Amino acid sequence: MICDMAVAWRNLRARPIQTAIPALVIGLALALSLAVAMLSDGAKEGIIQASDPFGVMVIGAKGSGQQLVLSSILLQDDPIGNIPYTIYEDLEHDERVQLAVPLAFGDNVAGARLIGTYHDFFELRTSRSAPPAFQLAEGRLFAVVEDEHADEDHAEDADHDAEEGELEEAEEHAGHEGHDHDAGLFEAVLGATAAKDLGLNIGDQFETTHGFGEGIASDHHHEPYTVVGILKPSGTAYDGAAFTQIESVWHVHEVDPNDTLAPYVGEQLGASDQVTAVLVLPASFAGQNQIYQEFYTGTDAQAAFPGAELTGLFDMIDQAQEILSLIGYMVLGIAALTVFLSMYNATVAREHAIAVMRGLGSSPAHVVRIVLFETLFVTLLGAVLGRVIGYAAARIIADVYSAQSAIPIPLRLLPEWELLLWALPLGVGALAGLVPAALAYRVNVVEKLFPS
């Protein structure tokens, strides 16, 4: 047996091209199946990890629930639209809600989304006992700006002072409370990936553009934001975002009510006194269902469960995996034919040499074992190449996608695939070698050694 294997290996080394090509075809077929399986598993794991901190319900504009979840949690789609800020206020004061976090989208800085929110965002956790998912690596959080009602109270006080003849003092007071940097507006906290990609540090400034992509921005805002903090990596899509006060987002999108386009612009993303979505952590399961039903029957907004919507996304991933796996099996079939043709042609070309071996005393079984070992070695080499190519391709694709989306794709070995990925090529090799082995077995020694 050892002698047969040694002879088979020597024969393969004697024809490197005919050996390498079938092995490479088998390797590519296995690499496709392996990479697809690893990336599918990693994508699901990464999406689950990226969505863990964001509660169990998302409130947003009416439309596709999956689009709402993808845009507000994974930052992978354009938002459907905006909802009135009063919806967030109602949820914030609702006894059935443990935590409500508003999100206002609309601008970006060099492709990184700018998100208006409150400090409650940085209290989001993967579980009640877990530490906050978003923690500062350096600096501080952006300043808290007084709400609109407080601004109105200050304005009324200023008017009263002016009526009493203290106009100068009122103007100074109104100037201090106005929408400017002195009032704490336009401070930004960067996610870990955003800080790295943008090359910004504490104290640096940047300007934003309207829209969600660097290449499609059509409206440049000239109010500079100052970086006051940088977050630690969270393993979510928000690592690639920048955070500021909602009031800052509102301010750059304020519209003159006398403008004829005001009714249209007021409906656009980032419009003043609106939010894009609200992340909700209900206080109880019963309260959660009640809130969902209220939005389901209402007309102002919709509620979506990230878990349910992501399950639908996983089904789509599984379907894509099945299709690509089927393609991989088809390629493996082509590889089997390639191995068969290679071994068949090699056997035909060596009929005289096989006849000499038989004439020197080799048994037909000895010749058959040599041919079968050759095909098995070719497919075994393909299995090794498939793992090398598959793992490398999965790692490169995962890194590229993670860099683009900030969603991690953790890769792991798949024990359930190991047996299959070894058994398939060996089975293919055994089947592909049967006909060449039978041909070698039936070589007519007399005819080949003493042709007439």
Any idea how many domains?
Answer: 2
Instruction: Tell me the total number of β-strands.
Output: 14
**How are helices and strands ordered from N to C?**
HHEHEHEEEHHEHEEEEEHHEEHEHHHHH
Distance between the termini: 35 Å
Approximate shape: elongated
β-sheet strand percentage? 5-15%
By secondary-structure content and strand pairing, the structural class works out as alpha+beta
Give the biggest beta sheet: 12 strands, mixed
Chain-averaged pLDDT: 79
* Uncertain spans: 148-180, 264-270
Could you explain the architecture of this structure?
The chain is built from 15 helices and 14 strands. It is of the alpha+beta class and 452 residues long. The chain folds into two domains: 2-48 and 313-449, no CATH class; 57-145 and 184-304, no CATH class. Strands 1, 3, 4, 5, 6, 7, 8, 9, 10, 11, 13 and 14 form a twelve-stranded mixed beta sheet that branches. Strand 8 (209-210) and strand 9 (219-220) form a beta hairpin. Helix 1 (2-14) packs across helix 13 (364-405), helix 2 (16-51) packs antiparallel against helix 11 and helix 13 packs antiparallel against helix 14 (415-441). The longest helix has 44 residues, at 306-349. The chain is elongated. Mean pLDDT is 79; it is low at 148-180 and 264-270.
